[in-house]
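Late entry, evening session. Most of the bench is empty. Finally got around to the prediction I had been postponing all week. Sequence below, unchanged from the version circulated by S.P.
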Amino acid sequence: MKAHRHQFDAVVVGAGGAGLMAALYASKQVKTAVLSKLYPTRSHTGTAQGGIAAPLGNMEEDRPEWYAYDTVKGGDWLVDQDAAEILAHESIEAIIELEHMGLPFDRTPDGKIAQRRFGGHTRNFGEAPVMRACHSADRTGHMILQTLYQQCIKHNVTFFDEFFVTDLILEDGVVRGVVAIEIATGDIHVFHSKAVLFATGGAGRIYKVTSNAHSLTGDGMAIVWRRGLPLEDMEFFQFHPTGIYKLGILLSEAARGEGAVLINDKGERFMERYAPTLKDLASRDVISRAIYMEIREGRGIGGKDYVYLDMRPETINRFKSAPGGREVTAEYLEHKLPDIIEFVRVYLGIDPMREPVPIQPTAHYAMGGIPTDVHGRVIRDERNTPVPGLYAAGECACVSVHGANRLGTNSLVDLVVFGRRAGRHMAEYCQQADFAPLPPEPEAYTIEMVERIRNGTGEERVPLLRTELQETMQTYVSVFREASGLETAIEKIRELQERYRHIRINDKGYRFNTDLLEAIELGFLLDVAEATAFSALNRMESRGAHYREDYPKRDDENWLKHTLIWRQDGRVTFAYKPVVITKWPPKERKY
């Protein structure tokens, strides 16, 4: 195995929206590199469909204060409200900046950026739905990704595509770079830097049914955790209510924003029972639980474990569920929702303009992750002490702007707002910092891990272990949770971690060794699953996406706080830090 050395002021790990936005801003002041295990335009940001929120008020009155409040309420009051206010106010500038970069937003007849409804977004502090989501048909994330990649090329960001980062160089509490495997050759590369930003996305592949791509294996979270730093609020994992049945492929709530409704076996629009004001546009945790309640009570379609998403024009018009109660046609929906409609036709073989679509909740988004402040600086403890030179942004980070449950569209806003803030701060840090010396043999950990896996002679196989992990998480750490199931999950994860030490792979080579890469990713998945299950067992209340059937009420007296979890000497420990409350004290969520 060859080892190579590189030196950059700033290194960004991950080429999705957050990583590209951070790299774009850092590159304006310092020498910047982006490392990505995928080609950048294949990053998962490209799958985001329905929109990116900003209170522009182009379609109807809107205000940043209403948006910030919706974010706090949607997150069940675990959101740090200073972060929510930053998100709401800076989203306007971020959207206009993307437009000036060339992002092709849909337009109103008078040329303004068009906006649509999205779940949990309201006017006047919950009074009624509001059109806040800016969109480019239902390919908004794809357009953001393409636009930011073009801008990074324009500003001479250096890209290392298909480089798999495996380790963080952290000595004496100071960041010194990262170590990566070049997938094409198997060579090891050490990137010496003043600052590192992780933007590696989520970890949905810990679950069996997920909207996440195969590449979302929690790499950044696990690497940081292995280096003795905490993860925050890992118990909060969002299930999106409308994944294609059994496949998990996401059908954006843009469909419901255009008037589609959820229907049970009796033909009822059942969300009227659970959220009488916002109905099918309530927050994702509320709708996911409602779907499971309908199934539990025997109102799944044909008694099975799914319900219908009905986007047929005649159904939308019958319920008058389109914005303003307007009449919709198949042609209108084909124009507004081309990818969603095509997904249904391709993956289910049905025409959603003529038939309702079988859906079930799908593991979608990690609200928790690497703890950061509002500048993207990673913090090491409950006192918010920053780690010099270490940053994180996007889904792998926890600001916390999503709290216990993320609103739809807020992932894309998070990427551009906090990716930009992190990139700016990282550039400022690099301008005043010196290169800390590399430790002797910084690549040693990665080489040892690679050789141990390549030369393993055990009987355990990676695909089997991964499947058992995913089935365990899907069964016991899903929409509904309780203590005995979580304890079973932890016991199983510990068993899988022990079996993981005895894996064997078929490909013993170095070049494009996907057997090796998947084995390393499985190790990351096991780490993230452990943190998630332990955190879920530890939080003895129900809040947002974390619903404990043995503790069904929210408990602000004991649990209005963030969880920090560490693993030290094979054991997990917890600490807590307060939620930042600026304007809105907790109250009951009503939709």
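Two things to note before I forget:
The CA atoms of residues 315 and 565 lie 47 Å apart.
The mean pLDDT is 97.
Will write this up properly tomorrow.
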